[in-house]
């Protein structure tokens, strides 16, 4: 464009826009009417301008730092795997399901394992060099990882062609089943040794999902998971482990909720926190090399008006992709009712495919790059999480907060606050506290919160109290 037509217009400042808004409000208070206060502890303006970006310019460093450049020419710049969960009960039937999903849209597997499975039966005719494989062990992670690596070796697959990771975080596990710190460090050391030959396979995870699905805020989940990783790093480096090796074998797992822009910013900020933490340990780590595995949220799912969960899944999947996740696992929309059926599994698998093949979210590496609003959100989340991490460290770190129960109490307090917000209609959830169908056949208890000791954090759903209230009224 040769003629710069915008120069004909006067420059409009943010204050000009605020003054115009105040005029339109006809005397109403601008702050009280249009500025939103978040549970994370900061304010959201109704609009953002280049003036706002001046204090957040540091975020430009992380624009377009999503995934490494594809090695194959012609592949879209934005790459993520469509991961399908397989709960392995019987190896033969699980293998049939695996081959079925791989032929219908999946290019990643999440295998939930006991650890004693026959991998030759389970993974018969599976070619791991073309997909990503993620292992979620119910018990001993060493056993599950060894069995998978033995299968790969026995079948002659190149070690560098095995992609994926182990979804196991020892500190997160301690929030469900008590364990001591030294035992966790022993396990991680063994996992690191097992994974050395498999250069592209991550052997342990940093799990922020556990805090999200237990009801924590975005700042809480980022601060607690990073603090746990600092605890792990310090323990391993004291044992002589190389920080570079630890970061290279790390996989970050998160859950992405329905607060669309906040969740986009959260995923992006997780990458920033890991990158800057690596620099503190003098590790040269490219931001795009950090692998983020995203789940859609269990916390947001409902048992009433279950079909609305399809929309929630889609919003959450979009946020995960635009936030920069490298692998995406979409929960079945009826997951809160118990075991998903074949239809809901297919719908979940199709979400990622539709966002790629019909919405073209893979055609641009970083579509939200340059957004003033998201830059502001990222900056606010980063500094709030950073302050909280520093406070945790001053008070003895993650393990101390876990042992004295302050971590668990804080998450549970936020959980109660957010659940109550639906009961009082401070927040709206379609089908639960607005447009409720009293005759909805899906209005059944479904999966409620499991019994929870004071030292535990169990996954639950925000709508649980409101649903129970609706059932009692019905």
Automatic annotation (TrEMBL):
InterPro entries: Cbl-dep_enz_cat (IPR016176), MeMalonylCoA_mutase_a/b_cat (IPR006099). Residues 442-474 are annotated as: Disordered. Residues 116-468 form the Methylmalonyl-CoA mutase alpha/beta chain catalytic domain. It holds the Pfam family MM_CoA_mutase. Residues 457-474 have a biased composition (Polar residues). It comes from the Bacteria. This is Heterodimeric methylmalonyl-CoA mutase small subunit. It comes from Rhodonellum ikkaensis.
